Please model this.
Amino acid sequence: YIALVYIVHLEACKMGLEGMKKTITKTLAQRMLSFVFTILFLIILAGATYYGLGWIKVVAGDATIYIVSVLLAVAYIFLLWVACKVPELEQTTEIKELPHLGRTAQAGYYFLLPVVVLMWCLVVERLSPALSAFWATVLMIVILLSQRPIKGLMRKVQGEDFSFKRGFADLIHGSVAGARNMIGIGVATAAAGIIVGTVTLTGIGLVMTEFVEFISGGNLMLILLFTAIISLILGMGLPTTANYIVVSTLMAPVIVNLAAQNGLIVPLIAAHLFVFYFGILADDTPPVGLAAFAAAGISGGDPIKTGIQGFIYDIRTAVLPFMFIFNTKILMIGIVNWFDFLVVVVAAILAMLAFAAGTQGYFLVKSRIWETAALILVALLLFRPGIVWDKFFVPLHEESPANIVSWVDDMDSGSSLRLTLKGEKLSGKPFTKTIMLTIGEETTGVEKLAGAGFEIRDEEGRIFIDNVMFASAAEKAGVDFDQEILNIQIPAHRPPKELVYIPAIGLFVFVWLVQNRRRKKQQPVAVTT
Model:
């Protein structure tokens, strides 16, 4: 989301667009303080909704609905009273200056109450999304009908702007506008049903899975690329939940299994997020872009053009799910302390900003070719520092499986055991794959292997799987009887790969300095007389 907002900012800069003139200019410290207070307010609102209303539900039981209704009514009247402390917002005159944020928010705090109801229904009452949205909409209707008359009483003024008739007109106007917007969405959803039915009922998804295994030829990047394209196709026209179920069921196992055959261990959560990202990307990808149709209904634009432009923006952030596979620290997997967490977060944000600026061809000013290449290189180094570090320092070294018992005996509880296995598929085709198992708290090496879920046998120096425990971690990892252990992969002692961040950030700062100097030269010089 940071990258998407930044892309919009870059587009505005490229077009020479400027924001409205601010009536009040704040210092950096004041802006940071306002940001912190906004975040704290949202946290307090969410906490009060979850814990406060949840506590009322525990204490009051079936009477909760009446107590919460009274609390909502009191909060509504209080927030209307707060809104009356500032002048009514003008809705007819043209806005030439940026309105004051505090006064604007104060005039409409009561519009947050439907959001509170929505959160309460979803989180506390555990109602369906449709029913939760219904009750939030009911409260919004009540607010539209009653806000103007109550404000009139509080301000002690009369007139058409503070009448029930005006509130009813607002409700009718909003209902008509909503119905018009839903026409295009309804038609798009109906048309998408044809494609969704074709994909799900004919079993074409399974055929595409076999296609990935065949056409990739074992190349990991091709596996990921074809999986992304197929997830995009499978996600067309599906709601979020169904989208996740379809793409995770059909495509996530493909990534995990084929990556293991290429010596890369992909956590299941990383594979799921990878396919889900591209499945959701189908929402604004023509011709079945439901989100694009919804956005076009609001903006009045062309749905296909909206979808194409949205896809162009989204594809610029498509590098992120690929990094889920190659750098799992982005998913908070393998974080050891708070400093490690801070480094990963800062590096990921800088990488997305650099990648967005590089693909946009604009940073502070229009980028030259070498600057674009430098920004993309910075993003690559920050996202995957191992791509350079692994060339100089080997991350793993292989040991003979003949000493597996002694190696495992020296491992601490919670350590990871990486093995390369060789076996045959049911079709008789040989394969090799890499697995990773977690060592338990057992005492001896043999007991630790049994705790991981398998036993071994030695045949003239060659180590084979002799037994696999049912429902064990080894069985879930695909370990099977009579597979041969080719080697044990032991992490090598080497300098931290995060040292690559230093030259990457240095290159980022250098590009910033070059473009900042060029921007100053391009700024018009004021002429004094």
